[in-house]
Design goal:
Pathway: Carbohydrate metabolism; galactose metabolism. Its cofactor is NAD(+). Belongs to the NAD(P)-dependent epimerase/dehydratase family. The protein has 370 residues and is α/β, with parallel strands linked by helices. The chain contains eleven helices and 13 strands. The strands form four sheets. It has a seven-stranded parallel β-sheet with strand order 3-2-1-4-5-6-11, sandwiched between helices. A two-stranded parallel sheet has the order 7-10. It has a two-stranded parallel sheet with strand order 8-13. Strand 1, helix 1 and strand 2 form a beta-alpha-beta unit. Helix 1 packs parallel to helix 2, helix 1 crosses helix 8 and helix 3 packs parallel to helix 5. The radius of gyration is 20 Å and the shape is globular. The two termini are 29 Å apart. Bound molecules: uridine-diphosphate-N-acetylglucosamine (UD1). Uridine-diphosphate-N-acetylglucosamine binds next to helix 6, helix 7 and strand 8.
């Protein structure tokens, strides 16, 4: 483990922190992690990002530093570390005192989780158990945890409300569901803890600069990264999985949310934790409350892109739900947060990122062969 690397520093800098607050962000170099780190810095927090670059690259945090400029990036420290190695975490916590942790680090590819469930348990469950133990040892008891709409399984009723029945349909989903329950149990046993579980719907888009965005390694599993690779000529066409659903156009409905809105949802959750000593352990949906079909998304992307995306109608993808979208009432009422951006802005920013970075952060077709 190395302390330093990207953006080492974390000194006082000239900007006063959010009441001097310091936040540890695990998985800080990832898609949602980088956008959240950026917003935290803009809000005046001191941020330590930890990452093992399993599905991310150091360049992503360099881009964040570039976007926020030298004064704010002086408040960003990076530590290379793997949450499955407890000693890495001990070193992270020995370096500094953290007021709260936002925990993104984890694996999220459903098919990979079916093929390698042990890898998902080790990374997601063991990593979180280690994080909890080390936080507790160092007296840090405020946690925002990345959960997922995957915990609603195939919802019987939409919109999904936070107290809907929960069900995991694959090993990845089981790790998220188990971790939610584990963190709830831990909080009940340790009432001084404050924990927020954020259930993300479908994060897409990119920062308006087009300098940071999603850069999956290998063939993308998710819809927008795949469409974007078709747009830049890396893939010939989009496979549309399922066109016989009982929806407006036969394709499946999801609740897409701009990643910058999602990042702001984390700031709202953090502020809620700081302001609410007796919050306990609470789950919130982070979505827009609006459902969009696959074909509607393709057509919104085509508007931003200015050309057609070739599509091929294919059978349903196993395990997919027909319709998933969020009830946003609880987050609106209790966190004072709601998504600002619609699918037009999401596609505009996704295409801007793709156009500027057709091969992602590495910028080289040869390095991105898969
Ligand atoms: C998926 C996972 C979910 C996980 C999330 C992480 C499944 C069943 N669900 O959500 O557990 O939390 O990713 O981001 O894998 N689609 C196509 N063609 C493609 C890709 C996707 O038609 O090439 C369709 C899918 O069938 C689906 C919709 O687009 O109807 C959205 O798919 P995706 O982006 O993978 O998200 P989810 O399936 O909602």
């Amino acid at each position: 483990m190395a302390i330093g690397g990207v953006g080492a520093g974390g000194g006082a800098g000239s900007v006063e922190g959010q009441q001097g607050r310091s936040v540890l962000v695990t998985g800080g170099a990832g898609f949602i992690g980088t956008h959240t780190v950026l917003r935290l810095l803009e809000k005046g927090y001191a941020v330590t990002a930890v990452d093992n670059f399993h599905n991310s690259v150091p360049e992503a945090l360099d881009r964040v530093r570039h976007i926020v400029g030298p004064a704010l990036s002086a408040r960003l420290q990076f530590i290379f570390g793997d949450l499955t190695i407890k000693d890495d975490l001990e070193k992270v916590f020995a370096a500094k005192r953290y007021d709260a942790v936002i925990h993104f680090a984890g694996l999220k590819a459903v098919a990979e989780s079916v093929a390698h469930p042990e890898m998902y348990n080790r990374n997601n469950i063991v990593g979180t158990v280690n994080l909890y133990d080390v936080m507790k040892k160092h007296g840090c008891n405020k946690l925002v945890f990345s959960s997922s709409a995957t915990v609603y399984g195939q919802p019987e009723k939409v919109p999904c409300v936070e107290d809907s029945p929960l069900k995991a349909l694959n090993p990845y989903g089981r790790t998220k569901l188990y971790l939610e329950e584990m963190l709830r149990d831990y909080q009940h046993a340790n009432p001084e803890w404050r924990t927020i579980l954020l259930r993300y719907f479908n994060p897409i888009g990119a920062h308006q600069s087009g300098d940071i965005g999603e850069d999956p390694k290998g063939v993308p599993n998710n819809l927008l990264p795949y469409i974007q690779q078709v747009a830049v000529g890396r893939r010939p066409e989009l496979n549309v999985y399922g066109h016989d659903y009982r929806t407006r156009d036969g394709t499946a409905v999801r609740d897409y949310i701009h990643v910058v809105d999602l990042a702001d949802g984390h700031i709202a959750a953090l502020e809620k934790l700081f302001a609410t000593p007796d919050i306990g352990c609470v789950a919130y949906n982070l979505g827009t409350g609006r459902g969009t079909t696959v074909l509607e998304m393709v057509s919104a992307f085509e508007k931003a892109y200015g050309k057609k995306i070739p599509v091929k109608m294919c059978p349903r993808r196993p395990g997919d739900s027909e319709q998933v979208y969020a009830s946003t009432a609880k987050a609106e009422q209790e966190l004072g947060w709601r998504a600002k951006y619609g699918i037009e802005e999401m596609c505009r920013d996704q295409w801007n990122w793709a156009r500027k970075n057709p091969y992602g952060y590495c910028g080289d077709a040869a390095e991105n062969k898969d």
